[in-house]
Amino acid sequence: MELYNLITFIGGILVGLEGLSMNLLDVIIKEFALKNDAQLAKKLGVKPSRISKMRHGALGVTDSFILVVYDNTGWSIERIREEIKKGEESLL
């Protein structure tokens, strides 16, 4: 059921909006007491350049990144959805 929710959710996200990824990245950093984006990249198992591109709006929240967050944080799909939604609301 959780994977079904993820697939349904992925179809509804907005990709390429800086605010969506900024909130998600910042919340992960805070919750896991990370000091910077390099530690965030290591925690998530992605290249630091991917985090940098997300920070600068060159890369949005993709379906594969949502899976990375899901796999490496232990967060539920609902939690990830909530954090992305907060990013959407900050853009309004």
What do you see in this structure?
It is a single chain. The protein has 92 residues and is mainly α. It has a single domain (2-91), classed as 434 Repressor (Amino-terminal Domain) (Orthogonal Bundle), CATH 1.10.260. It is built from 6 helices and no strands. The protein has helices spanning 2-10, 18-31, 37-44, 48-55, 63-73, 77-91. The protein is globular, with a radius of gyration of 12 Å.
Key terms:
434 Repressor (Amino-terminal Domain), 92 residues, 71% helix, single chain
Supply the helix-strand structural class. Answer: mainly alpha
Binned, the helix content reads: over 70%
| CATH fold annotation | 434 Repressor (Amino-terminal Domain)
Kindly provide the name of the CATH class: Mainly Alpha
Count of individual helical segments: 6
Number of strands: 0
Report the span from N to C terminus: 31 Å
Oligomerization category of the chains in this entry: single chain
- What is the percentage of strand-forming residues? under 5%
CATH superfamily: lambda repressor-like DNA-binding domains
Reported for the largest beta sheet, the result is: none
CATH architecture: Orthogonal Bundle
Computed Rg: 12 Å
- H and E string: HHHHHH
Uncertain segments? 3-18
Mean model confidence by pLDDT: 80
